[in-house]
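Morning!

As promised:
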Amino acid sequence: MKNLSFAQVLYYLTSDLKFDFDAIKNFSDQCPPGSVVDFGAGYGRTASVHNNRKQFLVENCKDMINLINAPTELDIEIKEEHAHNISIPSNSVSLCTFCWATLGELRPLVFAIGEAARVLKKGGGLYTVMLNSETNTMPEKGLRWKHSSPTSFTASITTLPYSEIGQYEYQTQMKVRNTEGDDFYIIKQAFPPANVLAELLKEFGFNQIKISDAQSGLSFDKDKTKLYQITAIKESEEVSADQKALKNIYNSIASRYDSVVLDGKYQGLEWLKRKIKPFEGSYPMVLDLGCGNGISSNVFKELNIHGSIYGIDFSEEMILKAREKNYYKGLIAYDLNKRFPIIESLEFDMVLALGVLEFVSDIDKMLKNIRNILTLAGEAFLTFELTTEDSLPSGQVIPTHEYTKYHYTKEEIVNKLSHSNLHIIEIEEGPGYFSPTLKKDVPYLYVHVSRRTL
Ligand SMILES: C[S@@+](CC[C@H](N)C(=O)[O-])C[C@H]1O[C@@H](n2cnc3c(N)ncnc32)[C@H](O)[C@@H]1O
């Protein structure tokens, strides 16, 4: 066994696989004119299908990129980036493709689908082809390829049992053994069943979802290895009037959000800085709910915390600004009131929900979701707006602003935390921010909780 890179191993192992180029071409022809993004483009095998479109090949493995050998006349731009976070403008692309096993490798799927939904313009198409995990995809004894490559490479792959690890997340493990009998790679892949993937696509505003069997073109185990193909069209999402009003406000202040925070004497970040100091120098997995323009990443930078930070916010403009901070591993524009994005395949050491829970309609469900995605030792940093004597009723649309806000008494919050099995480490009352409308500070309850009892 010579020193082959991971990419080269895959290259030799999969060079037998043939995509159904006609199916991709057919769908591509139905999509509006414009560019294509190929997520996890590998060594660019589908590139020649789209000979009339500008193509972005998104691939984060340098070795794979080195193997790209596309005809020079094609209009190709290689993006050496992770598919969870790509530097392509929103609503600008006509077709997104995830071919062969790509989508299975892009866990958590929500961030991959989220990026496709973001970059596609209305009417743009999504194409994917996946192993169908429901139909005993892998031969019992495992897949076995033998190849005589220039480096005389031989390897076998065993597929370990397939399991569901979350609502949208499934995994298959592969053990790669070289000729000397050494196991040297375990590849985890996730192939959700077609109907599950279709559900996820609907969550992100896709429609006209078509599922069909796909040609595997495999030279091994043709009968057992089934593929499915999904095509879908991006539609615009339905948003309720009050959610739309709030989203518009945040979209409009996204580019000046840092100064809004300063002017509003917002205290959330100072509190966060004090609380997360013990994480200094560490690499936690972090989920930032309602991440806004990514302002909390300033605190992480300052404290030299370099974890894998994922951010979610329903304002696309905020997400764009957060992207510019270059600190988030994945960012999605997603409405937390619609549904909590299922990211069960990931667990987080830290969840932040700062300045956002006052906009969440089902707070009990949200707290339970937060608890479920925390690691055993995981901690969450949450802020709640407190009820005051002159508060408008909680959950009512505020007439002057046309959006809904939720506030609670301290007792209500303590009760809710206890019902969702979140253990209070510390609770602090204090000013949240200065409201120019009310001309006074809005009181917050700052809550530091853990999943387990300390
Ligand atoms: C006050 S800002 C807080 C931003 C940041 N977490 C901070 O501490 O500065 C509230 C954020 O929540 C987002 N947000 C409000 N409702 C949301 C919802 N239903 N789903 C997702 N994000 C929402 C807004 O777009 C906005 O960026």
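The mean pLDDT is 82.

Hope this helps with the figure draft.
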